[in-house]
Structures are given as structure tokens and as C-alpha cells.
């Protein structure tokens, strides 16, 4: 049962939050128009092919235009030396959330790859479970800029542990 | 046998290379003087407590003042959707190498934590195994700046897949 | 008159926005408590000593606990090859805004220095003027993590050009 | 005479150094083949159109395939509050050096823009002059990854003050 998720301790209301940055883009009269109406199916199919997400017990809990969330339980097999979730695994969850947020806005015949990302670790990743959020800040034809956040979940409380600023690239099938 | 390392395909001569940046610091007459002569034991003991390194089958192949290398085999359990090593696992290896490079120069009664890092992914992480290098660029009392590199190993050939620029912090025991 | 500001084209209502991240910290019951009640005087005095801000014609338009805004006019003397504001000057404005946001929460006898930052350029910095926002995401005793944004101002409209993720350090006077 | 360069205090022998990373790429049998033999003329022409370089008194001291260096004098007009060169100006020099290093490998009918960069500030930028180095780590059709360094020059001695990891994009003329 090591991989059981903790959906009951995820504060669902957060899913309805809009970040300041996305609000700004909306205020600039640029809402997201996904070119592929089946983006959620495409995102979930790609996530199903990620060995690492299944190994981490991670689950896509939200997929919508320009945004994706992942939840995963804590597991000592992915800890650093003090017993917290390793910064690289924190990164894995945020990178996947950002990549899939970007992928929602890409065309049907395409793939998404990470170009680069930057992570600030704000607090030890200590919790029963974790929730990663990825949001698109700027969507371009080739490059998409995203922000990610990682929340630790403990006793139904969430706290921000890490933030990411990332660039994703769209590889179009020939 | 899934976790078996491939030491025979690691080009050992790379271990003797000095990066341009470290050379510059040396040229400034600032060689590294580790305050704790037992730094290697301390680094290896800390690495032994990282659940994630054991889960990845990673092994410290070099520890010296200001530098640490890790090697790990490829494993589909940590792949992204195209079957390459996930960018977050690439990060895990470079972050650990950088953290331990920094830790070699910290005092005996201390811990090392990652403050932040930035990763550029240069090529798909495709190989039979991987080697991460971490080197100290600037060692300070509180903060240490490191650079990391991740090489894919294929048929005894190494190719650079990713680079990292990272900040580590020294937490002194009270 | 080259350095004249364009306060009339700055949308003041933005000053009342709260970012998602700061909201999260507030939600965690961690509002900002500046240890120095005279933080605004201290911030403005430090800004007055920055040669670069005076050279750029930049002005601090908002200083409050955990937040600082700067406005500057466009000036061809700071352009890149296509006639837009150079990415390094975009960075200068965001770095100063982030540094002063962090400095509002530092003690009276201290200095602030940038440890590192990461910038994504979302759109050409093209406008009559620019507004930089800096906000504290996480305030610690030694390190403070901030996010910065740069808006181009054109005909009273603002658009997001660049984002920053930065780490600042507090140097205490002895 | 404020803008006079200090070529006599620049250690020219550094220009002959090869970074570890570029050496690795060379070792992988991937030397740089600039598609445009007139890349130096093209780079110098673009630099001549940068208002900011002329304002800073910066000069391109080296342009070769995959590499560019800039030198600039110290000037109090670009200082931060402690009298050192502002981190944003440090960034301006490294960003331009990296951008032009990337531009040497781009086709004749193209432009170069910065996508993103990350800077670590290692020491106060204190000196009579400064030298920025930009080098290509990975050259792709669309994106180019570079590393930058900023050296302070004092009494003919150079010391490393800052490092950059940057992504540049090639915009092809239609």
C-alpha cells in the first residue's frame, strides 16, 4: 500500500485559484485557446508512459488549458539524507506538472520536452504527500514558459516547499 | 541485476580533468583547503543515508576536495514518456554530486542542503548508464556555488546531456 | 527631459494586487512582520545610493512590507540591437525591485546583496516606460526568495515582458 | 576619458583557454562549424547597434566560432549601493557575450535573442574594469546554450565575480 495516494488530504479548492501571472495574461486579453480539443486525453496518455510517475505513485489530479497538477505520496525510497523528499524528486514532480501544463496548449501531433528549469527550495519537503502545480505563463509557437509549485501535505494542511521557473519546447511530428 | 553499475564503461581519465572555472580559482591562488580531513568518510556516510541514491542504484565514484562524481545505470522505472531518463532524475544525480562536492569543504559538524539550482537539458538522457559530476566554483562560509554535468554513457562513450548551476548552504550543528 | 518618468501611464491599481504565492504564505498564517518599522526610509536611502537607478531614471513607486516597485522610462542609451530595452537592463530593474522587497523585511543594521537570479524573457521589452515588481516569497533569517516581474507600458497599457526568481542575502552589520 | 578601456590590464592569455565543457564537446568529435564565414563582421555590426554597449563603454575584444569576449571600464554611473558594479550590469555584459558567442554559429540571415539566463554572483564586482566571456556549450538549430563568466580586473589581476548559464534563440529572416 506504499503507493496509495492521499486524495482526501488534498485541498481541492486550490485547483480553482488563478495565479497572478496568468491573471495578467488574461488581463492582456490573451486567454488560452488549446488547438487540440482532446488535450486532456493526450496529456494523460503521455503521463501513462512515464515510468518515473508510476514508480513515484504520482497521479494527475487536474488537467485543464494551461495548467496541470500532480499528487504523490511520501516514500522513504526517494528521500535525501535527512529523511525529506529529495530535491531532485521535488523537481521531477514540478517538471512533469509544468511540462503537461505546456502540453495542453500544443497541437495534437507534437511532443513536449523540457529545455531548462530553475528551482528554489523554500522549506524541507516534509509531508505525508505532495502536490505539484504547473501553470503556463507564456505560450509561444515553439517555446512555452511555465511556473511550478510544490506543496507538502501534512494533516490536510498544505505548505509551499519549492518553486520552479521552466521553459518547455514543442517538437512537431513530421 | 537491474542495479548493476557499469564501471567498465566509465572513462576514468575524465576524473583527472580540471574545469576551467576551478582552474581560474586556482590561478587566483585559492586552492581548496578542506577544514575536515575526514571529508570523504563524512560524504560517503551521508550518501549512504539517501534513500533515493540507493533506489537509483547510484554510486559515489569519486570524492575529493571540491568535487564528487556519481554513476548510475539506466532504469526504465525512472524514464520519461520517450524512454529516456526523466529530467528530474538527471537533476537528482547532478544535485547530489554538487551537494557532496560542496560538503567536502564544510566542517565536520555540519549538514549540506540545496538552496537552488538551474538545469539546462542539452540532449536526451539516453544511455546504458550515467555519470554526474559536481564541482565547487566558489566556497563560502555559508553558501557554496557549484557546477554540475551529466554524461550519458553508451558503448564506453560519454556525451554531455545536461548542465547545472547550483547554490548549497552549510547548516552548522549547534 | 530624457529621464522624465511617466507616472500617469502606470496603472496604479496593480499595486493592490496580491500574487498567488504571497497569498499562499498568508494562507499559511505567515504574514510579514518587518523587524524595522522604518524600512521604507531605509530602502529609499539605499536606492538613492545606487548610481545605476539614477542613471536609468528609475524611481521607487511602491515600498511596503515584502514588496517594492520601480518605474523607469525607455531610453535608447540602454537598448539592444533591435531597439528594445536590453535584457540586462530589464534584469537591473527586476533585481533592484526584488532586492528592495527583501530589504523591507531585514533588520535596521543590515545590507542586502543578490546571491543569484534567473530571468525568462517572455516578450521584447518594447514600451514608453517599464515597471518592475519585486515580491518576497519566502523570508528567512539569512536568505530571502523573491519573484520579480517586468511590465512594458505603452499607451497606458501594461504587458508582462519578463519574470525573475531570485535569492537575496542579509548581511548583518557587526 | 571616462569610457577609456584598459586593454593593457586584460590578461590576453586567457583568450586561449578552452573551457572543460567545450573541450568535452570537442572530444565528442563535434567542433564548431560556423555556417556563415563572415560571422565576425555580422557580430561586430550587431554589437555596434546596441545602445547599451556604447553607453557602458564596452568593447568586443574577441570574436571566434562559439566564443565572444567583452571588456568594459568601471563607472560609478552603473554602481549599486555599495559602489560595486550593479548585478544587472554584470548581467548585461555576460548576456551580450553569450548572445554573440551564440550568434557566431547562426546563419547569415538571422537574429539572436535571449530566451533566459541564470546568474550566480560569486564576489562583489569591484575593479577598474571588467571582462565578460561567453562560450557555446551546445549549438542547436533553434536554441543555443551558453556559459558566461565575468572577471573583475584590478591591477592587472583578474578574479571571477559571476557566472551565467543562458539559452539563446535563432530567429531566421523570412
Characteristic terms for this protein:
174 residues; 6-stranded antiparallel β-sheet; disordered N terminus; 6 strands; Thiol Ester Dehydrase, Chain A; homotetramer; alpha+beta
How are the elements arranged and paired?
Four copies of one chain form a homotetramer.
Chain A: H1 20-27, H2 39-48, H3 51-56, E1 59-64, E2 67-73, H4 87-103, E3 110-121, E4 129-139, E5 143-154, E6 157-172
Antiparallel strand pairs in A: 1-2, 2-4, 3-6, 4-5, 5-6
Report on the architecture of this protein:
Four copies of one chain form a homotetramer. Chain A is elongated and about 45 Å long. Chain A has about 170 residues and is α+β, with helices and mostly antiparallel strands. Mean pLDDT of chain A is about 85; it is low at about 1-30. The first copy, chain A, is about 25% helix and about 35% strand. Chain A has one domain (about 15-25, about 30-170): Thiol Ester Dehydrase, Chain A (Roll), CATH 3.10.129. The first copy, chain A, has helices at about 20-25, 40-50, 50-55, 85-105; strands spanning about 60-65, 65-75, 110-120, 130-140, 145-155, 155-170. In chain A, strands 1-2-4-5-6-3 form a six-stranded antiparallel β-sheet, sandwiched between helices. In chain A, strand 4 (about 130-140) and strand 5 form a beta hairpin. Chains in contact: A-B, A-C, A-D, B-C, B-D, C-D. At the A-B interface, helix 3, helix 4 and strand 3 of A face helix 3, helix 4 and strand 3 of B.
